[in-house]
Design a protein that fits this description.
elongated, Rossmann fold, binds adenosine-5'-diphosphate, 37% helix, binds magnesium ion, alpha/beta, 6-stranded parallel β-sheet, OB fold (Dihydrolipoamide Acetyltransferase, E2P)
Length: 793
């Protein structure tokens, strides 16, 4: 392959005066359009003129001292300069900047009445156009307008080679003069070197490492846009190219902030820009689905234009804000509509200060500030005519049950029945004991209903429920089985909601009681609001005083046995130990693999700790078997429990002081935090040891979050940040919203605002039937699949 090397002395250096003029006009015109703020040119307009304006001294004189002028004077001088340069049109600054050259390709007519649902064929993008766009999932105009750039390149002022600085990033436009492939003999590196000439006639070299295919894309005479890092050696400028594309004589690709779209091979950026431009151009004014636009929002028309072809960073930011807002709004609307939303009426409870005070008086402790706040949120819901639908989140031991007890007491005082449903029998029993402690002294009659009770026991509970004799019932799924009838169910409390299926919950909720869901899975508020759009969220983000945080330490495979030496010491003190192991094999079914791993670990520990009594809990056990193991552990029948991840959330083992987690990196952070919450339930100093199966930087960074913090909400935020929302436990299957722009980790403010608007809209128009919401409804339908929803309750 003979890529002839051209001697620099013979290179053609011919740049006409006209070309130079044209290159000067663009930044000056943009400066004028930008309101003469002197921010279009890096380093100031005057600097540019000094560098490039030498052939036109009269222009230099007109713009001398530009920075010191006031805005009006600047505008006047800019216009003069443009006239001197012979610009035919002095642009009106208020006009949007149409590309100066006509978009290439024929400007075939576009139908007049364009809508979001118009197929993209109508845009006449050429024969291959439709096929290319279809490959990217773009079929109608809506798809195209919402096909957002992946990033942007700032090419408002393309620098000349003379202006770039050594070591800085720069974007240059240049014509290909020559190209060659150089192999360094020592390290075997392949260098592509291409000589370019920029618009002002200066030369530079573009350099690519080990990308020989680039050569083919650099035909002589082609005009390329190149971004990368600058290297200056004497008078020679090289660019270590990181990104490049064919300018294609295309004005959409230079002289502005240029969009770079996600794409695939064979679908060029220039084509995508032209497609977006044509769609925007074809729309006179893009209609806004929001009939009453909140002040903080850009109209959709502007937002869509700016997201594709931003005038400035600020405009782009506003556009993104608006488009994210819409994503979240549609998400909230959809979830609210699916669930029957806020329109459902429930029972209005009467709450008196004395009632609450009486409850407080029987507590052996003072409610924390967070408990008081959440309780008042719950009581406000109970007093309103709407059906309560509230999620109470809080770490294990933060006092959720105590707050739920207060709500159940209020319900009972109002003559209504309350139910608390737990996912397992042992949890139900534990709740029953706790609620009895709180409520029995207040004269509330309680019952327990679980599957293992005898038929006659069950029957008598059912009768008491039906007659209204039982005021509060605690139970498992047994509560929603046939034969269970309430006299007047007013409040349903559901513990650990993720264990219950939608349908199961529906059955309990058939009577439309007020609903309180308690969850110890700390989900960041932003995620909770979108996942459970119809649930209000309360957080108990403070632990009762006097809890000593669980000491947490990371060990590696090498130091792993230290964990078990420590376990031996704890057990000698009469304490108990959990050892949790995740699934470690692939290919087998999950439960089988877990069982194998747990069994192996148990055998290992029996050798390592011969004097210790060990038992096993795993996912293949029946619920009753699991409950029995937990019950025996609670009673101290053995010292160390090896368990797979099925270990029951919420069961108190007061003597358990050590949690060892094998291959801890395989768990989500929120899950690790929950597992750690299994110990330290009895006021004894407690520990958690995380054994890292591998020690990559990422793993250690994640595990350190657990080591350093015991704040469940902080940990959940970090989990979201480090892993992305889809990876949170259990969320992937449930259809995590596939937000294109929205970011759950950082868009909390937008989420809260859009949620408030969604509620207001549905309050005024519960089914979006009013004409002013027709467009919104259409968008909701059209984008439902694109966003992806989860059904709640
Ligand atoms: P959760 O349901 O969030 O796991 P619980 O309501 O079961 O928490 O409370 C855990 C333990 O803390 C219980 O023993 C309870 O009696 C105690 N507790 C709850 N609230 C307080 C408080 N404000 N001060 C002291 N102890 C409390
Ligand atoms: Mg609890």
């Amino acid at each position: 392959m003979g890529f002839g090397k051209i001697n620099p002395a013979t290179e053609e250096e011919h740049v006409t005066r006209e070309e130079l003029k044209a290159r000067l006009i663009r930044p000056i015109a943009r400066e004028l359009a930008d309101g003469a703020q002197d921010r279009v040119v890096a380093g100031g307009l005057e600097k540019l003129i000094q560098n490039l304006g030498q052939p036109f001294p009269e222009v230099g004189r007109v713009l001398a001292g530009y920075r010191q002028m006031d805005v009006e004077a600047r505008k006047a001088q800019l216009k003069k300069a443009l006239e001197l340069l012979g610009d035919r049109v002095v642009q009106n600054p208020s006009q949007p900047t149409e590309p100066r050259q006509a978009t290439p390709g024929s400007r075939s007519p576009v139908p007049e009445a364009l809508s979001f649902d118009t197929p993209i064929e109508a845009l006449n993008l050429g024969p291959g156009g439709k096929k290319k766009l279809a490959e990217l999932g773009i079929r109608v105009v809506r798809d195209l307008l919402h096909y957002y750039p992946r990033r942007y390149e700032d090419r408002r002022t393309l620098q000349g080679v003379r202006e770039v600085e050594d070591g800085a990033k720069a974007t240059l436009v240049g014509k290909v003069l020559s190209r060659e492939l150089v192999k360094t003999p020592k390290k075997g590196i392949q260098l592509v070197q291409v000589r370019f000439m920029d618009g002002w006639g200066w030369k530079f070299t573009g350099i690519w490492f080990n990308q020989p295919w680039v050569l083919k894309q650099m035909p002589e005479g082609a005009s390329m846009v190149l971004s990368g890092r600058v290297q200056k050696r004497g008078g020679n400028v090289s660019l270590m190219v990181e990104y490049f594309e064919d300018e294609g004589g295309e004005s959409l690709s230079t002289g502005r902030i240029v969009p770079v779209y996600p794409s695939r091979e064979g679908i060029g950026q220039a084509f995508l820009r032209r497609a977006a431009w044509r769609a925007l151009e074809a729309f006179q004014a893009i209609p806004d689905p929001l009939a009453h636009l909140p002040q903080s929002l850009l109209p959709l028309d502007k937002a869509l234009r700016q997201v594709h072809f931003p005038d400035s960073e600020e405009k782009l930011e506003q556009a993104l804000y608006r488009l994210k807002f819409d994503e979240f709004l549609l998400l909230e609307l959809k979830v609210m509509l699916q669930s029957g939303g806020s329109a459902l009426l429930g029972r209005m409870f009467r709450v008196s200060p004395e009632m609450v005070e009486r409850f407080r008086s029987i507590l052996p402790f003072k409610l924390t500030g967070a408990q008081e706040r959440v309780l008042s949120e719950i009581l406000a819901d109970m007093q309103s005519e709407r059906q309560m639908a509230r999620l109470v989140q809080g770490d294990v031991g933060s006092g959720k049950t105590a707050v739920a007890a207060a709500a159940l007491y209020v319900a009972a005082q109002n003559g209504a029945q309350g139910a608390l449903m737990a996912p397992t029998e042992i949890l139900a029993k534990q709740h029953f004991e706790n609620l009895t402690r709180y409520l029995y002294p207040l004269g509330v009659s309680l019952d327990l209903l679980v599957g293992s009770m005898s038929a006659s026991e069950k029957r008598s509970v059912q009768e008491r429920l039906k007659s209204g004799q039982t005021q509060v019932v605690v139970g498992t799924h047994a509560l929603i089985q046939d034969g269970v009838e309430f006299c007047d169910l007013g409040l349903a409390v559901i513990d650990e909601e993720h264990r219950f299926g939608v349908l199961q919950r529906r059955r309990l909720l058939g009577q439309r009681p007020d609903v309180l869901v308690m969850s110890a899975t700390p989900i960041p508020r932003s995620l909770a609001l979108t996942m459970y759009g119809d649930l209000e969220v309360s957080q108990i983000d403070e632990l009762p005083p006097g809890r000593t945080p669980i000491k947490t330490k990371i060990l590696t495979q090498k130091t792993r046995t230290q964990a078990y030496a420590f376990a031996r010491q704890e057990i000698k003190k009469g304490h108990q130990v959990f050892v949790v192991t995740p699934m470690i094999e692939e290919g087998e079914s999950e439960a089988t693999a877990e069982l194998a791993a747990a069994t192996r670990l148990r055998e290992e520990l029996e050798v390592l700790l011969p004097e210790v009594r060990i038992d096993l809990l795993h996912g293949k056990m029946k619920v009753e078997e699991k409950d029995a193991v937990m019950e025996r552990f609670k009673q101290g029948a053995f010292d160390l429990l090896v368990s797979t991840t099925v270990i029951e959330v919420g069961v108190d083992i007061p003597q358990a002081t050590l949690m060892i987690i094998e291959n801890a990196e395989r768990f989500g952070l929120a899950q690790l935090h929950q597992l750690r919450g299994r110990v330290g339930r009895g006021g004894l100093e407690s520990y958690c040891i995380l054994i890292a199966g591998e020690t990559s930087k990422r793993t250690m960074e994640r595990l350190r979050v657990i080591e350093e913090s015991t704040d469940g909400f902080y940990i959940a935020e970090q989990d979201l940040r480090l892993r992305g929302p889809g990876e949170l436990r259990g969320l992937r299957q449930s259809g995590m919203p596939d937000l294109r722009l929205g970011d759950l980790a950082s868009d909390q403010e937008i989420i809260e605002q859009s949620r408030a608007l969604a509620k207001a809209i549905l309050e005024a128009d519960p089914y979006l039937d009013q004409p002013e919401h027709a467009l919104l409804k259409r968008e909701l339908q059209a984008r439902a699949e694109a966003i992806g929803f989860r059904e709640v309750i």
